């Protein structure tokens, strides 16, 4: 593992050093050119998953078919970030109706678990691991909702590649091997059941390393049941009973009734106009509108006169983020339980008022942090013009450490993101969807598709979305440059979990941000920290309507690949 970490760090530092040098000369940096294709494009966080999606397109499937196939493969190939134990969100551009559709496929809390339970136990926070943070996994229902509305090929065909790889195996990539070598032994050392059986015994008694073959025959069998029996094979019957019985044995509350009653929700994406481009996100219980609030504030500044990566750029960005995240902590929650004032939060007048709070020095607003997060983001486009922006996650890497016996996957721990303070928007309630960090995004121009994109990384995601939009629109970068450009984030304080803050928080930058900028930020009163590893995971597809060509991008920070034809 030491060799892997060292090599990854050396490559990354060298890359960012080159990036910094290019910034000095005023040239945008990218690790490679954009990928181009006329008939379709797939961009995922794993090269084999991208090829699976591309094969589906070449064999007559559409973008939604390919996305489901690739997501199923990622649940096998990147279990450190996603899987059918987690939730899913998607934004779909439908070429037939020329319209965007939003899907919220996130699960709800157990109906038999009350806030009183936590209070009687003296708990002020839901734990990260174990049965208590487990909410209903929504991904499988999300697949079938997408397929029912837009799919074209049988689910048995769509899931066949992932089943084949789960049974026969595939070589672990460097990054995922490192994640697994770090995560699986920890869960095992803490005594969580079925970890060894699912991830080690099924691989000959030893957890594979980089380049070694990884198998998950339990997951192959689960996928077969889903392919044959549909979403009911997961939410009713043997799989549901296995999940519920296991959680009950571990002292949790998720039941067969919770699983059987689960349903996804089709929602209307929301947008703001940023310099002639409409940027789209999904409404809460996710945090996508934080990116829209940031952009609403930032569009009041003329960035044609502000250099990328300059002190002024990062200062204005950070202050906008603090203001948006103050609202995030107060208002973002399941809209079935709380009336989120969406129209007001995204209005020009509200943004004008918030912008007036920004001064020349770091402000002491509430700011937010939840977690680093681990997620997969992917996007697919087909020859008919359909595009899908899809994000899927277990949360905190592999999830809750709760692995139901012989099913091949770990359950998510999204329930950790509820507040246990009474009277807040995101306070825990039975049957409620927790605040969510994972968010897909989309950009249209003149009511036509332009860019489908996303960025992984917990709290960083709204910041990442805002940086990508600015890189494309304000700084004129191409799709690959926009993802490879140096990043930064801001952490500290208030969140939908109930934490508050009284300081200015901390800005953490990659090495591509110059010393002059960092010194300037410090002079403005900002605290500066070191970069962390949550910036990675950008994928994107751009539609060039003039030449009728897709542009694909997948950044250098992870294993991802864009592939077109």
* Biggest pleated sheet: 7 strands, antiparallel
Shape: globular
Number-wise, the strands total: 19
Q: What fraction of the residues are assigned to beta strands by DSSP? A: 15-25%
Radius of gyration: 22 Å
Low-confidence segments:
1-25, 366-371
* Mean of residue pLDDT values: 92
Fraction of residues in helices?
A: 25-40%
Output the strand order for the largest sheet: 1-18-17-13-12-9-8
- Tally of separate helices: 19
Write structural notes for this entry.
The radius of gyration is 22 Å and the shape is globular. A hairpin with a 5-residue loop joins strand 10 (376-381) and strand 11 (387-393). Helix content is 37%, strand content 16%. Helix 2 (47-58) packs antiparallel against helix 3, helix 13 (288-298) crosses helix 17 (460-473) and helix 14 (311-331) crosses helix 19 (515-523). The protein has 565 residues and is an alpha+beta fold. It starts with a helix and ends with a strand.
Quick description:
With 565 residues, this protein is α+β, with helices and mostly antiparallel strands. Helices cover 37% and strands 16% of the residues.
Task: Furnish the topology, listing elements before pairings.
Layout: H1 2-24, E1 35-37, E2 41-44, H2 47-58, H3 63-77, E3 87-94, E4 99-105, H4 115-120, H5 139-150, H6 155-168, E5 170-171, H7 174-189, H8 195-199, E6 213-214, H9 217-229, H10 232-235, H11 237-249, H12 256-260, E7 265-267, E8 270-274, E9 277-281, H13 288-298, H14 311-331, H15 342-345, H16 348-355, E10 376-381, E11 387-393, E12 441-445, E13 448-454, H17 460-473, H18 479-484, E14 488-491, E15 506-509, H19 515-523, E16 527-530, E17 539-544, E18 549-554, E19 561-564
Parallel strand pairs: 15-16
Antiparallel strand pairs: 1-18, 2-10, 2-19, 3-4, 3-11, 4-7, 5-6, 8-9, 9-12, 10-11, 12-13, 13-17, 14-15, 17-18
Helix pairs in contact: 2-3, 3-6, 6-9, 13-14, 13-16, 13-17, 14-19
